[in-house]
Write a structure and sequence with these properties.
Layout lengths: L5 H8 L14 H9 L5 E6 L4 E6 L4 E6 L2 E8 L5 E5 L4 E6 L2 E6 L3 E9 L10 E8 L5 E7 L4 E6 L2 E8 L5 E4 L5 E6 L2 E6 L2 E7 L4 H6 L5 E8 L2 E8 L4 E6 L2 E8 L5 E4 L5 E7 L4 E7 L2 E6 L2 E4 L1
Antiparallel strand pairs: 1-2, 1-8, 2-3, 3-4, 4-5, 5-6, 6-7, 7-8, 9-10, 9-16, 10-11, 11-12, 12-13, 13-14, 14-15, 15-16, 17-18, 18-19, 19-20, 20-21, 21-22, 22-23, 23-24, 24-25
């Protein structure tokens, strides 16, 4: 499975949180507000000969950019050195290392920049962020230190600790060791840790998880299909990039993938695929899992 994100599968179990008709479209203003109000944001003021850029980022994936009077949302991208952010829609790329930076436009124009300071409106950039997590489905406590400059985390549980490198993630931050047997995903106040094929869900210590899951700000869509005494549930949380699937008593974490029609989600190992279309008054879907295929429609499902 090895895939972010934790609370999706947990919210499946808390099916009273939402309904299939919930609207979870993430707008530019939602993303902007999330970055500018984040508690652990940091800011870069970048300047070139004729260019000024305000870059506000968090340890997660989203970044807010103000460039030539325009407001643009960027996504963090993995880089071998320093930090990098990209807006595919606008064909723009920003790279930062130390006090040096650059802006790339349309894959060809390269504008040298320099870091001239941090906006006092948002606070100074920090090189290290720490998180205290408690188990949702376990009794463990997990302490995580994220080194922004090295793009690594040190994870400590009880008396054991491990250092993980950052890897690509569709949503939030993700880290793994070299052989991929240990995987950590962090998004907002939540985390998911998988080691040797066993997954554990966590939430920050200062969060009441049950109340957090029920909070109306946690936008959720829940789809439920039945076949006799069996039931399938699919929960989409937040921006809908991650889904939790519960099928025949087992939980799976899926990430959004491109689809020509409707929405589609797939497990990291490619063994589970779920496609769904929402028609308002009903939803229909298609599932491939364990070598079998199932069709879903009007609240019921059957094997194909």
């Amino acid at each position: 499975m090895k895939k972010l994100f934790l609370v999706a599968t947990s919210i499946v179990a808390l099916s009273s949180c939402s309904s299939a008709n919930s609207n979870t479209v993430t707008t530019f203003e939602n993303q902007k507000s999330a970055v500018l109000s984040a508690k652990d944001q940091y800011v870069f003021n970048l300047e070139g000969d004729d260019t000024r850029i305000l870059l506000v980022v968090t340890p997660g994936n989203d970044a807010y950019v103000k460039y030539n009077g325009k407001e643009i949302m960027f996504k963090r991208v993995v880089t071998a050195s320093g930090e990098a952010f990209e807006s595919k829609e606008n064909n723009m790329y920003i790279g930062i290392k130390g006090q040096e930076a650059f802006l790339e436009l349309n894959d060809k124009t390269n504008i040298p920049l320099r870091v001239v300071g941090n906006s006092t409106e948002y606070g100074e950039a920090k090189n290290e962020y720490s998180y205290n997590f408690k188990g949702v489905d376990n009794k463990m406590n997990m302490y995580v230190v994220y080194d922004r400059t090295a793009d690594k985390v040190n994870v400590k549980i009880d008396n054991s600790s491990v250092t993980l490198n950052r890897v690509r993630s569709a949503s939030g931050m993700a880290f793994s060791n070299e052989d991929g047997k240990i995987y950590l995903g962090i998004k907002g106040n939540q985390a998911y840790l998988e080691t040797n094929g066993v997954g554990f869900n966590f939430v920050e210590n200062n969060i009441d998880y049950n109340e957090y899951a029920k909070n109306k700000e946690t936008k959720t869509r829940l789809y439920t299909f039945k076949s006799g005494n069996s039931e399938l549930s699919l929960a989409l949380i937040g921006d809908g990039e991650v889904a939790g699937l519960r099928f025949e008593g087992k939980d799976y974490v899926l990430n959004r993938v491109k689809s020509a029609s409707g929405e589609a989600f797939e497990s990291r190992d490619g063994k589970v695929y779920f496609g769904i279309k929402n028609y308002g008054d009903r939803a229909e879907g298609y599932l491939e899992i364990n070598g079998k295929a199932y069709r879903f429609d009007n609240g019921k499902y059957s094997e194909i």
